[in-house]
Queue: 3 jobs
Job 1
Amino acid sequence: MKRLLALLITFAVLLTGFALTPTPTSAQGCTVTFGFTYPNPFNISLTANVQLRTEPPPGGTVLASGTVIIPAGPGTFTLSTTLTIASPYTGPVYGRVFGSFTVGAFTFTNDSLAGPFSTDCGGISTFENCAVTFSFTYTKPPGNPASSGTAQVRTAPGGGGELLGTGTVSFAATVTTPVTFNQSVTVAVKPYGGPVWARVIGVGSDSDIGPLKVFCGQQLGCFDLRGAGQGLLTRPTPLYWAPRPDAASTVVLDTQPDAKTYWVLGVDATRRFYKIIIACNTYWVPVDVLVPNPDNVWRGAPLPTNVVD
């Protein structure tokens, strides 16, 4: 009887241990990188809070959170941050960067929101950050208080076309003499394949500066995307780890639930594969699964045909 009781107890323990073992799942989280601009009026670095949300605050759910370092100012900085969503999510996401900072007797509060973004969280999605940098000179008359101007980047000169991004430029007060400010400004913009024009409103003149080129990728520490294009995926395809038919991986890019676009760097020597970027890594896909992105930003701009390794 004692031996039977011991066997029953042992069997019960084994069953309990089996029941508590987590069930394996093939679902993966999603690493999301997004770009943003954030001001810092202090000459010290700041630690801001960052979130990925399903809706702008105060609504929605926080999918992931963390912190990001804002460099010492004063200035407005174009930055990026990466967060990982713990479980699959296929809806739009918003990136929020916020904080309240007190230095001495001065308190500065800022809450920035980027998005919405579309994401495919069955794998990895990266939202490339793009920016335009330009310089201008502004002579401020004497006896003027501290002021600011609004920097705009547009797809056409004269205030026309589509507004791709804005930023704020600050100017210190002047006393008895005029002061000339030689400013270099970086404005975060959405990806755009054509020329753009910048202007600063509120500095006495809003003359156009340009044409300029949108530069993408460097803020992420990934790739120099000058000369790259964006391709729209037309049908599901495996990712290839090399530009060869026998190099297909088990990861499949799908067109559902939304149309997917990818940065395209060029073609292989046989011109049968495009080299694409996903989450700061490069892969290959057959050329017949991508077409030029037809949206209002890229407008069917041709994909690059230069040979890349």
Note: The chain is about 5% helix and 50% strand.
Job 2
Amino acid sequence: MMTAPFAATSFTTAALQLPTEPDPGPDELAVFWPLLVQLGWFLAGFLTVVLIGWLLVQPVLKRAVRRRNRNNPTLQAAVVLYFRLLVALAGTLVGVAVAGYGGFLGDSALVISAVALAVGIAAREVIGSLVSGVALVLDPEFNVGDHIEWDGGAGVVQSIALRITRVETAAGELVTIPNTILTAGEITRPYGRGNHRIVQELGVGYEADLDEVLEQLTDVAGETEGVLAEPSPAAYVDDLGADEVSVRVHYWITDPTRRDVFAVRSAYARGVKDRFEAEGITVNQPAERELSGRIRLGDDSASE
């Protein structure tokens, strides 16, 4: 009478014991072993090239570039960046070859060429920007910190990347310019090339003594802080206008920035104003003209 409950319990326990999958053994792992070996060889080849390039060759290259281009930090940073990319690409190719896929690449040369052509056509603007970026960083006359003027604006170069150049304008705006725009047009670098000549013009009345005016202009330039003694300042009569005589003064300052040019021009203009007031020289006196004739007011149609 007591055997029935025991049999039911045994049946329930047996029903709960679900079959489990066997643990993967050597036979199952053997299927993935060739892939793991190829991955290991790829990583070994890739890391070997990258470590040798970045840890051994890059410091030597960086010191050589810095030694030959001390005033070109843009070129120094660009060379390191492009060298790292080149080493990574070389490491990838070496890793693929070491892993045993060199024959596959050789057999698929036509497919790879077609893919490269398609990518080149699709990304021609990006590639053009990259090539333009290389051209800019290799140009010794184009560096971070230079004040440049191009068709569309002017400002100080803040950074040069692979595809774009960032320029800060005089208003403090940060402008991002594609490198293709800069290489396709003209770029003017007015400052940062040694001595810089400043030309200022003004007009004086016909009654003024021109010899005295020219002498005062050069004297004030020589007394202005920042103006070089050599080449010496010079002043000339430029043009004879209807109401005034136009004169021009040239003077030089050394290796200025845009802010330095504004400061010297302002100081010189203030000095000229004070000197002319002291000497009684009139600058740009308003013209007076006597008009004669008749002015008729009224509606012509009404008189008809």
Note: Residues 42 and 97 are 8 Å apart (CA to CA).
Job 3
Amino acid sequence: MFLRFFALITLTAIGVYWFHIHISPKDVTHYEQLIQESTELRTKHALAEKPALQKRQNVQKDIWSQNETRHFRIQSEQSELTIAKTDAVEELKNIHCHFKDDFILSADEGIYSFPSHQFTAQKNCHLLQNANQIDGTLIHLDLNQEIVTYENPKGFIASGPLRFTAKKLVWHKKQGKLILTDDVTIEQPGQFTLKSNLGTLTLNEYEPTLLVLEGEVKLLSTVIQDKISNALADTLTYRPKEKSLLFSSAKKVLFWQDGLSLSASEVLIREDKTVEGHGDVHFSFNFEEQNYIDELFKNYL
């Protein structure tokens, strides 16, 4: 009697386990997911309170753009990697970088941020592309958008050739546009020096095809008709292939050299150094124009 009662209790317990407690394969998968999520949450919580720190020597990082068409490699003698809750920051020393086969960057220090793919280098920054070169104090690379920002750039473009300086440079590599701002100076050695507030250089395969300067544009040259020549304008358009300089202004372009004073809506200087006045042309300066020249050129005359 007792044995039959015990067997009945056992079968009942097994039934309850089978219908109410039995763990199916689906339950196992769900349980494993919960364990993984719990582990990740604990990790994120721990990183939020105290980020992980890793120090390494002779580091190489290979970074690809979002569509995996562009490759950027960073080599560094020393690295200090900080991993926080949502991002990671790596501080690098004595860096040497390759952007596909396009250019090489070297600097004393650098910082790479993930997942934003932002890279900043500073101290003795040198950017090289064949014979083209840009030096500066700080360079920032947006590796996703392929935008380069340079502070205090000093550059040389072999095709031209052209030298330039400014307070800031922004290079939109995809668009082939190089924008210079504040105290912009463009020089073609042995030909002319140009100064302005803003400059936009259009590049085709790293060769300049168009230069536009805006804001208090100044020309200083010694080769136009073998005389010291100067000009003031609002805007300058320079086409390197044609080697022509077109100055324009809302009021008047002012051009002068020994024996010539020219005030006109536009002034065109051709490759053969011929000077042409277009629009409302005068061969003398009025009082207001002379004062404007004296004010803007007082540091050069």
Note: The helical segments are 2-21, 25-49, 287-296.
